[in-house]
Amino acid sequence: MRYHIGSLDQQKLLDLYKGMLKPRMIEEKMLILLRQGKISKWFSGIGQEAISVGVTQALNSEEYILPMHRNLGVFTSRNIPLHRLFGQWQGKKSGFTQGRDRSFHFGTQEYKIVGMISHLGPQLGVADGIALADMLRRKKRVTAVFTGEGATSEGDFHEALNIASVWNLPVIFCIENNGYGLSTPTNEQYNCEHLADKAKGYGMESRIIDGNNIIEVYSKVDELCKAIRKRPRPVLLEFKTFRMRGHEEASGTKYVPEKLMKKWEKKDPIANYEAFLLQEGTITEEEIGRLKDEITEEINSNLKLAFDEPTIDVIETKELKEVYQEFNYEHVEPKGDVKNIRLVDAISQGLEQSMERYNELIIMGQDIADYGGVFKITEGFTSKFGKSRVRNTPICESAVVSAAMGLSINGMKAVMEMQFADFATSGFNPIVNYLAKVHYRWGENADVVIRMPCGGGVGAGPFHSQTNEAWFTKTPGLKVVYPAFPYDAKGLLNTAINDPNPVLFFEHKGLYRSVYGDVPSDYYTIPFGKANLVKTGDSLSVVTYGAGVHWALEILEKYPEINADVIDLRTLQPLDIGTVYTSVKKTGKLIVLQEDTVFGGVASDISAMVMENCFEFLDAPVKRVGSLETPVPFSKGLEQNYLPKGRFEKTLVELFEY
Ligand SMILES: Cc1ncc(C[n+]2csc(CCOP(=O)(O)OP(=O)(O)O)c2C)c(N)n1
Ligand SMILES: [Mg+2]
To answer: What pTM, to 2 d.p., does this model score?
Structure first.
């Protein structure tokens, strides 16, 4: 291996050596502990240390770095006290996730490290968001993110690189091409010569770097960082290296040809560099011995600290509390003249006033800039707030959700407009796995609102009509809001934007332009978790939300003899079940009406909770009414048959007469 030290001084040469030695020695110790059953899974980075260490040392300490499962060298290079890393791997309190997540699945703002989620790809988009925040603040910073060559096959890779290029974000995408993704060799993973060649397709620069040569890694990345800080842009780096151990320790390396192992053994980044330093007289055998003794002592004393730590206390209430970031709701009373406006106008007003309130609130979505969005909610926003805050995105929901997460990590707020709620499927993974779990896992919050134009009755067929709130109410960590009236929509959207937790904000398309209501023109807020009793009566209770509220009110008009409580839930997570119980205890009869198909929906859970908690008060079975168990059909007759209005009317009369 050839080393071109260029202008690197003695100290730097030694720092790079020490930097690689530490993770190698930690790993060797971990492999022993693993065999003794003292730690669980281990993903080895042996043979790949030059990449983690070289890249991290080239960054400034305030620059974010997003490592993967083989990047121990990133964590040690940022000087995390070892007992905290050991505590993390043992699920102890001194770790970074309080025993809630394993191995390298954590981040830390203190060390500007944002760890991976198991799904690999999403962090590439998170890096985009972090870099976007730096760019908008005109900070001359680089963000570095890692991926294996296997994960470059994920859509997230394509999406994140494409966004970074279109927005010219200062991100260094580092591919560690180590020959395998679990057991899959590169020729079954991709069909081009070098992954670096893909950069051309994104209109991006790239380099191929010998990932086992620490001098080459450090010098090239250092030079690039300096250049990118001056002139922000994304760059794709492909580090050629090799995975010397199994995917994780238990799975072995039987499928790797012996010849290949032998070839790469000779290229060991530490052994080669050590020989070079000895030959150059930069270090002596004695100094190496002393250094290894020091590291051994550091590892052993820190291991003792971690092993001595008691296991985590299990406190159920504490676990529940950690799912969401605490939110101190600030109530702003409605003021200003009241105007009778449409739901769509109320949402637009809330969004606009929140943009005025928060300089660092960014909106992202397809066609939302000059075009104003397909529903025209952001019409005129670019002239007021500029295109850097009202951002058109390419069609890549997953990377945009991830980028919103990145903005939040770097201290900004984000609202993403899903063009249609149906398309949330293309961004589903980061919503339910990243945004939802990030606070519980490592205490980070996702200050993100995802606006979800949803709902049927508009003749739009199976892919533009769904109301998919139940996909999200099921997932701890998300809040779900679903207003039915303009007044609520504006106040709740403002609260959603204030709330530092991820909020799915459902906006019924059918109500956008058909429902009018009195709305104060000034900024105001409405608290989450408070249902609204829109009509009172004592013959039965109707609990519903969204379009269901309007259907219930309309049908009840036809039956003046049925005096019903009509409860508009307004938010589904948190859910104001107390108001439901109070009403059921008064009326003794309940219908839960939802636009979604019945099975597995919100109505089922409300029904179950009422059975469990108000059984003695019930005079009739709880009824759930929802859409037919089919996809949403297109033609008018079929759609009306699908939607629950008719079934609601029938059930209402039956329950009244029960
Ligand atoms: C979405 C998803 N699919 C599959 C896996 C299982 N898995 C975890 S790591 C891995 C291999 C990754 O290979 P590569 O990106 O080359 O990284 P390496 O392990 O080689 O460093 C696989 C298949 C996963 N965690 N997430
Ligand atoms: Mg790999």
So the answer is: 0.98
Q: Is the pLDDT assigned to residue 37 strictly greater than 90? A: no
- Provide the pLDDT for residue 22: 98
Q: Which atom of ligand 1 is nearest to the CA of 118?
A: 25
| Tens digits of residue pLDDT in 286-301 | 999 999 999 999 999 9
Burial label for 383, CB within 10 Å (0-12, 13-18, 19+), is exposed
Provide the greatest CA pair distance for the chain.
98
Query: Ligand 1: distance of its center to the CA of 70 in Å?
Result: 11
Query: Which among 70, 39, 34, 41 is positioned nearest to 55, based on CA atoms?
Result: 70
Distance 183 CA to ligand 2 centre (A): 9
Atom 12 of ligand 1, residue of closest alpha carbon = 181
The Cα–Cα gap between 52 and 3 comes to 18
> Ligand 2 centre and the CA of 243: distance in Å?
7
Q: How many CB atoms lie within 10 A of CB 453?
A: 24
How far apart, in whole angstroms, are the C-alpha atoms of residue 150 and residue 147? Answer: 8
The pLDDT value recorded for residue 645 is 97
Give the CA distances from residue 447 to residues 280, 324, 344, 465, 491, in Å, rounded to whole numbers and listed in that order.
52, 11, 23, 27, 17
Interatomic CA distance for residues 90 and 84, integer angstroms: 10
Active centre residues (catalytic): 464
User: What pLDDT, on the 0 to 100 scale, is given for residue 354?
Assistant: 98
* Location of structure tokens 């009840």: 556
Burial of 378 (0-12, 13-18, 19+ CB in 10 A): buried
Residues touching ligand 1 (Cβ under 6 Å) are 70, 118-120, 148-151, 176, 178, 180-182, 243, 247
Pairing mode, strands 235-240 and 205-210? parallel
